[in-house]
């Protein structure tokens, strides 16, 4: 293995400039995270607590195993898109361990607009479901929702990837044996009632949870009939009469304990299909990554210096080191998991694309997961000397990446522009997860403004799954590798390569 020494601090005068710029980005990112973690207004949270309910994130913590990491998908979704709605789009979605098993949690946040669904809520919900479906993760939905936000119905109701897809995904996953479990924590109307009704097992809380297609207020408006919550759709009615619910709990804590027992009886958890090596910290401090990552118009340092702070023991076995130098490929370990890394080191030339396609094929053959560290301004101009075949070799790379049936994780560390974004594991090529560093920029054009190309805009639209601080990248990738490694291996086949 080649151990890469990192001497960027002494040779690159832009380290301090990058670090200074990154501190501002990190402060902004952490402030937005704090908004998402708080949920609704203080008044709304106090009202929620006054009913004897746990706050939504308290429910998450109580359900997860002590010390379990929680990879949150779409924490910044919808930021600044709706009045009075903090980042997160009225729900919480993420993966953590319950009874030693990775599970997807989908949690309505009733402290924000009563858990009402907006367009970005349905997009976040379906993205989390697709992640769960891909990784065959049990889905645990904590329901307390007023249904769809009527003024935003065009973004909730008619199309694929909206509310109807939530229900479709549920029943298809259930048909494949992927457990669907619901807890009804509070009043749940319309779509909020259908979601638990389509689950395999449902827990409802006495004198707190309720499900109905139309609320008591809607019944009165339509018919003039006065009816209370309990006979219309309360826990007693659904547990004793309709049979829609399977377990009746006394309070939030009891419901979460029942849910843990349900998960504990889902059978043997899947085993990791790879042998994990003993993890080793990098020889160089990952906290130095903020001085190496590209930020705005300031280019990042060479990818070897970044790798030296990401991979175990700073050891990286490079593939075709002297050929196609604008893409760096090689094998390494991250927290003990073997990975194949494709790292951007400039524009994508014909030679770089051919090399990377070869390397991706090798990883597909050997069942080695791929990590793309993306920092590229785009493809080389075919008019440049030696680049007449860049289109042909770029097509090979796209073919290889799209068809490689191994776990794939994309981390945009700097620039991801034009077709290079797609070729290096963009969302359309279906990586298991797409992450961005705070200073990353991605767009169709190199000169796109920051408010369009910046990581925050990508996160608010859920074009990426999360913005990850550079020094946290190892831990996040390790969790994602552990989740993906519990799927059976699949053979890789390719379309026709144009030679």
Automatic annotation (TrEMBL):
Superkingdom in the source lineage: Bacteria
InterPro entries cross-referenced by the UniProt entry: AcCoA_carboxyl_beta, ClpP/crotonase-like_dom_sf, COA_CT_C, COA_CT_N, MCCB/AccD1-like
Chain ranges of the CoA carboxyltransferase N-terminal domain: 21-278
Entry GO CC: methylcrotonoyl-CoA carboxylase complex
Molecular function, one GO term: methylcrotonoyl-CoA carboxylase activity
Domain CoA carboxyltransferase C-terminal positions: 278-499
GO biological process, one term: L-leucine catabolic process
Protein name, UniProt field: Methylcrotonoyl-CoA carboxylase
Taxonomic source organism: Piscinibacter koreensis
Lineage: Bacteria, Pseudomonadati, Pseudomonadota, Betaproteobacteria, Burkholderiales
């Amino acid at each position: 293995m080649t151990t890469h020494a990192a001497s960027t601090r002494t040779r690159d005068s832009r380290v301090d400039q990058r670090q200074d710029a990154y501190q501002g980005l990190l402060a902004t990112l952490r402030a937005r995270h704090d908004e998402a973690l708080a949920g609704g207004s203080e008044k709304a949270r106090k009202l929620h607590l006054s009913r004897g309910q746990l706050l939504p994130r308290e429910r998450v913590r109580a359900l997860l195993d002590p010390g379990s990491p929680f990879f949150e998908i779409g924490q910044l979704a919808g930021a600044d898109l709706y009045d009075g709605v903090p980042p997160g789009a009225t729900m919480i979605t993420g993966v953590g361990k319950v009874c030693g098993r990775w599970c997807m949690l989908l949690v309505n946040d009733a402290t924000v607009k009563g858990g009402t669904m907006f367009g970005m809520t349905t997009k976040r919900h379906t993205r989390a479901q697709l992640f769960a479906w891909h990784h065959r993760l049990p889905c645990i939905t904590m329901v307390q929702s007023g249904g769809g936000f009527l003024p935003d119905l065009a973004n909730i109701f008619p199309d694929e990837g909206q509310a109807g897809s939530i229900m479709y995904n549920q029943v298809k996953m259930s048909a494949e044996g992927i457990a669907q479990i619901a807890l009804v924590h509070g009043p749940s109307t319309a779509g909020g009632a259908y979601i638990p009704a389509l689950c395999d097992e449902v827990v409802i809380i006495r004198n707190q949870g309720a499900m109905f297609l139309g609320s008591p207020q809607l019944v009165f408006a339509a018919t003039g009939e006065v009816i209370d919550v309990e006979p219309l759709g309360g826990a007693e009615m659904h547990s004793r009469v309709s049979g829609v619910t399977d377990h009746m709990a006394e309070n939030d804590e009891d419901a979460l304990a029942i849910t843990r027992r349900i998960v504990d009886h889902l059978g043997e958890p899947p085993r990791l299909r790879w042998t994990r090596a003993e993890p080793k910290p990098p020889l160089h401090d990952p906290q130095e990554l903020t001085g190496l990552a590209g930020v705005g118009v300031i280019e990042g340092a060479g990818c070897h210096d970044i790798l030296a702070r990401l991979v175990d023991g700073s050891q990286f076995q490079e593939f075709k080191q002297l050929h196609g130098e604008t893409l760096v490929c090689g094998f390494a370990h991250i927290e003990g998991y073997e990975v194949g890394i494709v790292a951007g080191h400039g524009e994508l030339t014909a030679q770089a694309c051919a090399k990377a396609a070869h390397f991706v094929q090798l990883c597909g053959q050997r069942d080695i997961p791929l990590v793309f560290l993306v920092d590229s301004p785009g493809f080389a101009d075919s008019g440049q000397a030696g680049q007449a075949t860049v289109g042909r070799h770029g097509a090979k790379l796209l073919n290889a990446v799209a068809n490689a049936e191994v776990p794939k994780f994309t981390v945009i560390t700097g620039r991801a522009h034009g077709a290079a974004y797609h070729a290096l594991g963009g969302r359309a090529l279906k990586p298991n997860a797409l992450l961005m560093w705070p200073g990353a920029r991605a767009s169709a054009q190199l000169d796109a403004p920051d408010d369009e190309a910046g990581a925050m805009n990508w996160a608010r639209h859920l074009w990426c799954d999360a913005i990850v601080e550079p020094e946290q990248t190892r831990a996040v990738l390790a969790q994602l590798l552990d989740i993906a490694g519990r799927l059976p291996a699949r053979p890789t086949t390719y379309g026709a390569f144009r030679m």
